[in-house]
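#help-structures
NK: newbie question, is this the right format to request a structure? protein is Carrier domain-containing protein
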Amino acid sequence: MGNSTSMFSVTTPFDQLGVDSLQAITLVDVLSRQLENELPVDIIYKYSTIETLSHELQERAKLANSTSIASPGNYILDICTGMPKVYHSVNDRSLSALLQFITHKKSQLLNELTEYGALLFRHFDVITANHFAQVAQALAITHKSFLDYKDGISKRTHVMSNVFTSTEYPKHVEMALHNEMSYATEMPSQIFFFAEIPPAPGCGGETPIGDSREIYRSIDRKIRNAFANRKILYVHNMPNLGQGLGKSWQDTYRTESRKEVEEFLCSRHIEFSWQPDGSLRTIRSMEAVKRHPLTGDWLWCNHAHLFHPSDLQPELRRTLESRLTPVNMPKNCFFADNGEVIPDNYLTHVRHVLQAHQTKWSWERGDVLLLDNYRVAHGRAAFSGERRILVAMC
């Protein structure tokens, strides 16, 4: 790598130097502060080499010495950078300005969400969980209500209303790309993230994202067809509170009432059974590939790689499988047509494809990220230090 980076010149385009879209935004911010002059963010796309950008900045400096340059009149600057598409404050970074912008441009924003799959709102005064909830409510699809994460498999802390922490896995654990609650009979259409406490630079903790359409196209055809034709049978065993491995059924359904749990499961046609030890088992057959509800695109959209025992650390897997039958594992999945075990090598291939299609970018304090939960999968990088990302979904 040392040789390749040493051969660049001032005429080498920024993208060939490995400068991604968010790094470009940061560069323009730094230049704006150094020059004490607000630069348009798309300047780095118009003048895409060190040589041309340097020349343009020199010309702007000459102009600034002779005439005043009016600052942009718009408080929102739209930056098209692929995925995610970034909206960046220019003049007014207040919460009220952001909410007003969303109200006026909601139809456009939802169309862009369908086109790009991910929208990032950066450098606004979104500071608290309440602020985040207001932004999410403003952006939400009108006819959709926010979900309370009942039936969710991951441990989260309820913060307020329908705002939760992101998955509370140990810091050292990487989470592969997935579409939130793809195993659920009522899968969220949108998922919102808020960087209340972003990880420090260089400490990991990114939320990588990936295009579910491209993932679908990249899965080996034989494996993809097996999943598409045979579907997935998800088995989830939830212990009684404090009595076993994994998230309890009380935490999963946010109640201590068996009757309420049964009503919830019956309303969603989820098969269930109470076990002699007080634990709850749910079984459901779900599609492994889905069509996007708006575009009709085929998507790789399932949790097989996260339910399957191959997701466990090898030693933990050996221990559990020596003591438990497959159906008694905390989580497991099978082919739904006949209950056959899904081969490990199928999931190894899937994970390789997911890894190859993820895009990483760094959180900044106050960032709000909106994902089309069908179109875009997300994950979590391992991290050190503090990190608190909040989520909402509808």
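mod (FA): yep, format's fine, and the tokens are attached above. Residues 1-6, 62-81 have pLDDT under 50 and may be disordered.
NK: thank you!
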